Amino acid sequence: MSSERHIYLAPWRVDCRLTRELPDDKPVRVRFIFGLVIGVFAAGALTYTTIQAFRVRAAANEISGWEERITDRRAAHDSVSSEQRELQEKMRLIAEAHTLLHPVLPAAGFIGEIAKLRPAAIRLTRISYDDRAATLQGIVRGEADRASRIAGDFVRELRDSKLVSSHFGPATLTALDRADDRGELRFEITLPARDAKP
Q1: Which positions ≥6 away from 128 have C-beta within 8 Å?
Q2: Is 44 helix (H, G, I), strand (E, B) or coil?
Q3: In this model, does residue 196 exceed pLDDT 90?
């Protein structure tokens, strides 16, 4: 009875496998998965390299295009630069000619204005001018108080003059002392130039 029961529990076909002699299939699976992972990485690296190669080629084409533009326009740039240098030289010559023809201080007008403003009691002995200032030296006739007042009034007249103030800063009485015992005072008035260089 037990043998019959055994027959019914048996598989419906014959098992011909020799399980002890078959190789283990784990190494095959591991090799397959390992190969698949390596293939994916290789494909990704190849794709990335291809994209980078296309980018490098596009950048090289763009650089060569810009270099061609620069080369094409270099002649025009050089021509404009040389013209600009010529114009700057001509402008310098024009400015120099203008300075020679129209000096900073028209001497005749300046001396005429000083002569017009000078009180009768003042005698000018020297007028000097350099890049920094104009200096007026002279003698005031009269008593000390009166002579001092006349010199001060002359300084105020110089300050109020439009012609003088257009070229100079405010006039300053820089020296006032007795010339001799005849009742005369020696004075010096300084007019600083407007564009004086320190």
Answers
A1: 134, 135, 137
A2: helix
A3: no
CA distance 30 to 70: 59
DSSP state of 23: P
Instruction: Report whether 192 contacts 132 (CB < 8 A).
Output: yes
What are the C-alpha distances in Å from 53 to residues 37, 39, 47, 50, 126? 24, 21, 10, 5, 86
Tokens of 148: 């001092």
Classify domain 107-192 at the CATH class level. Answer: alpha beta
Look at strands 133-141 and 172-180 and give their pairing.
unpaired
Q: What are phi and psi of 133, to 5 degrees?
A: -165, 165
Q: What does the alpha-carbon distance between residue 140 and residue 185 come to, in Å, rounded to a whole number?
A: 5
Q: Report the distance separating Cα 194 and Cα 131, nearest Å.
A: 10
Give the pair of three-digit tokens for residue 19. Answer: 């399980």
What are 116-151's pLDDT values in tens digits?
Answer: 888 888 888 888 887 788 899 998 888 888 888 888
Task: Place 9 in a pLDDT band, splitting at 50, 70 and 90.
Answer: low
Give me the count of residues in the chain: 198
Enumerate the domain spans of the chain: 1-102, 107-192
